Amino acid sequence: MKIQTYREFWPYYLDQHRHATTRAIHYVGAASFIGFAIAAAVTLNAWLLVPAFALFYLPAWVAHFVIEGNRPATWAYPIWSFVSDLRMFAYWLVGRLSTELHRTRQQASAAAHS
């Protein structure tokens, strides 16, 4: 069944990132992307977006296959995945990711038992 809303997608996205190592690889990718995107904007050099996207996606995709044993959500939900990558990074930066992971897992567990 295809996910219809972003509200449904977010818990699915977090579930696809169960391992801390996978999430850490995503954080490095997100930070690299932001840095290269800022550099591209400041220097007006669009070519800097090539390494921005490469560093953002390629290591994360490898992590999904090797660590998580799943396919990247980006392939089925590219926009929502991009937003969620940055959202997960932001939650981690402000120290709220553990709470969010717990909350979404509790909701999934409650839904499975109802």
Automatic annotation (TrEMBL):
One of the Pfam families matching this protein, by short name: Mpo1-like
Keyword tags: Membrane, Transmembrane, Transmembrane helix
TM stretches of this protein: 24-42, 74-94
Record has Transmembrane as a keyword: yes
Domain of life: Bacteria
Record flagged with keyword Amino-acid biosynthesis: no
Record-given protein name: DUF962 domain-containing protein
